[in-house]
Structure formats: structure tokens, C-alpha cells
Amino acid sequence: MKKKKATVSKLAIHGGTPVMKKPLPEPHNAGKEEIAAAVRVIKTGPLSGFLGTASPRFLGGTYVKLLESDYAKRFKVRHAVSFNSATTALHAAVVALGIGPGDEVIVPPYTMSASAMAILMNGAVPIFADIDKDTFCIDPASVASRITPRTKAIMVVNLFGQGADFSALLPLAKKHGLAVIEDNAQSPGATWRGADLGTVGDIGIFSLNLHKAIQTGEGGVLVTNNDTYALRAQLCRNHGEAVVDDMPDYSAGPIFGSNYRMTEVVAAMARVQLKRLPFLTKKRVQLAERLHKGLWGIRGLTPAYTHPDNTHVYYRFAIKVDEKVLGISRDALADAMAAEGFPLSKGYVKPIYLMKLFQERKAFNNTHFPFEKNTYYDGDPDYSKGTCPVVERMFDMELTLTDICQHPYTTKHVDLFLTALKKVLAHKHELT
User: Fold this and answer.
1) N vs C: which end of the chain shows fewer Cβ within 10 Å?
2) Could you count the other beta carbons within 10 Å of the beta carbon of residue 298?
């Protein structure tokens, strides 16, 4: 019996039996209602209601318009504009604000590359500000140190399910006359001082990507209370330059557009998903609270932090690892947990400015536009290693993430996660 017990308790990474014997299910939210909504559109058509002419159908079909109305009501904004992805919605936000060559936009480097690429796509220059060590969102003090006469906007990424420190960021933006774009792909349903994230800045972006809280495979929604920004976003989405000649009252400046349109099938599914957002959010929060409780008292592991002004919806559950206190490195912990059936990330994403594109300053073939001095730009962005030390420390050594609080996971999965963690830590001397 003793021999059997020793075998069972042996770490999976060293040949023992893993705590989770079957692979975890992929996060997937779609159910019968979403299937019925999609099938209804496929059967009846049209699959897209857009036309590239200055007409009512320029703004889309029945379900696209209904979805936009649903978002506007749910988030209490004047305008919601749908897109085929959150990335194209971010680019449309840059277009809507009239940002282009010669301009800079301050953005955190700890986010999906789309946040920065949307800036580059319009010929503007991303300037990277460091993150707060607890929320992992952009640090207002670092933002303040990056502002120049060329700065036109701050792109705030509400990361992992909560918002940045808007109590400092909003006055800073107002002082310097800067617009605020919220990349709220990961935090729908979370709030700052009672206001929905995504509606705090001038323009907010929501994602419908397959990993997000509301899933349709791909899709995005832009929200704003500014009539001009909404119009320019609508034009950008649907080949705007092709129709402004037929709009005699248009006076919102030059527009450059493409095909960023959402289909009727996606819009129909998204309407159902939006109604389920409160349920999905409540479930994630409940699982996160259970995980918080289970991590309590484990020295060297600091669970996800919530800023006092915020509510947190736990898109991903962040844990900081102090190697000296815990006794093993973040990477050793992640490897051992993965073997037990519970993958943990090593960091998050590579800081964007360390990507080859920024290190070589080549975004458009072999030219150095827009990074180096040209007819429009006289700046000199710093993309060197060490530019954002907090980000680099989190990526290299301290931060790990788990998806165990996402749907369709349950309390059983969380409890097994904690069992695996305790097993690994009981054998940590074997991992050094």
C-alpha cells in the first residue's frame, strides 16, 4: 500500500499520474439559442445586408442593426458600430479620431499586438508606456513621461478582466487634450466607479473572438457618444471613400476605408451571446472567488488583484510568482502544472516593442516609415530592451495565468486545479 501511495503522489512531470487525466475542454459558449439564430439567417438570408452605396443599406442588414441597438442600450451609449473583428474596430477608432502620419499614440506593450498594429495601420507611431505591477494595465505615471507634442491619444487596454487607473488617466488626457481609446476586448461587464468599461473613454472596443466572453468566432463592436466618431467609423467599415461624394452634407474630413463589415450570421449569434453576458460573468466571478480562497496563505503566490475603483470579471486569472519565497521559478511551476493537466502561461505575451518589426523599425516593406524622421514625423521612439521594466519582469519571471475560471469549467475543475497546485508545491524540492 505504501508503495502504491508513493506512485500516486509522484509528480506527473516525473512519470506520476496527473491530477487531471483527461484534457481540459476548450472554452466554448455557443448553445442551442446561438445555433438556432445562425440557422435562421442561413435559411432565410441575406447573409449580409450591406451595400457600398450612400443608402440605408450602407449601415448594414437587419441583424447587424439590431445588434448595434442592443449594444447601445446595454452599455448606455449613443452609438455602437459592428465590425468583423476587434482589430478592425481598433483601426476604425484610430481613423475616427483622425490620427495618422506624424502622430503618436501611447499604448501598453502587454497586450495583443493588434492594439499597436491598429496605430501603425494608419501611419501613426506607437509609443509604449509601462504597466502597473498589480493591475497589469497601463501605468499613468509612465504615460505622463511619454507625452510629447506629437501625442494624440492614449490607448488603454483593460487587461484580464479589469480596468486601468482612470482616476489618473482621464485628468491626464484632459490636461494634454488627448483622446482615450479603450481596448475593452477582455473586460465586457466590468466597471470603473459604476460605469461600464468601454464607455469611460472617447471610444471603446469590444471583441467577439472565440476566446472572449462573448464568442462568435470573430467580430468586434465600437462604441462612442460622439456623433462624428461614429460616422467616420461607419465610413471606414464600408469603403467610405467610395460614398462620401454622394453625401453632400458630409464634412468630417477625409476618410480611408476598407471591408470591415460584420455578417448577418455573426450578428444574430452575438445578440444571443450578449444576453448571456450576465450569466457568464457571474459564473467566472464565482469560480475566481473560489480560486482566490484556495490560494489564500500560499506564500510566494499573489492572486489576481482588483483596483478599489473597479469590478473584475476575470477573463483570465492572474497570479504573480515570487521565486525566492515560493522556492521554485515561475517556469518550473508552469511546467509541473501542465504535466498535471492544468496549463499555466509563462508571462503573457512578449512585450510588443521587442517584436522584430519594432526592433528593426520596418512595418512597410523595407522602409522605416513611420518610425524615423520624415516629412510628417520628427520623433525618435525608444523600443530598446529595458524601456518598460515592469512589463519585462512580468514576462520573464513573475506572471502566470490560468483560464480555469472560464466557461465551461466548474467548481470541480477549480478544486482539481488547487489539488494539482498543492501536489506540485509539496514536491517543489524535486523541481529546483
Assistant:
1) N
2) 16
> Nearest to residue 80, comparing CAs of 66, 94, 69, 92?
69
DSSP-based three-state secondary structure for 352: helix
SS3 of residue 321 by DSSP: strand
- Rounded CA Rg of the chain: 23
Query: What b-and-e string marks burial along 268-280, b requiring 16 or more CB atoms within 10 Å of the CB?
Result: bbbbbbbebbeeb
pLDDT tens digits along 372-429: 999 999 999 999 999 999 999 999 999 999 999 998 899 999 999 999 999 999 999 9
200-216: average pLDDT: 94
* Residue environment code for 32-68, b if the CB has 16+ CB neighbours within 10 A, otherwise e: eebeebbeebeeeeeebbbeeeeeeebbbbebbbbbb
Is-contact 89 121, C-beta < 8 A? Answer: no
Average pLDDT, the chain: 95
DSSP 106-149: EE-SSS-THHHHHHHTTT-EEEE--B-TTT-SBPHHHHHHH--T
User: How much is the pTM?
Assistant: 0.95
Helix (H) or strand (E) holding 192: strand 191-192
Task: Give 203's contacts (C-beta < 8 A, 6+ positions apart).
Answer: 93, 96, 97, 179, 180, 181, 182, 222, 223, 224, 226, 229, 233
And the C-alpha cell for 159?
487587461
Give 221-257 pLDDT, tens digit per residue: 999 999 999 999 999 999 988 888 888 889 998 888 8
Backbone angles phi, psi at 302, to 5 degrees: -110, 110
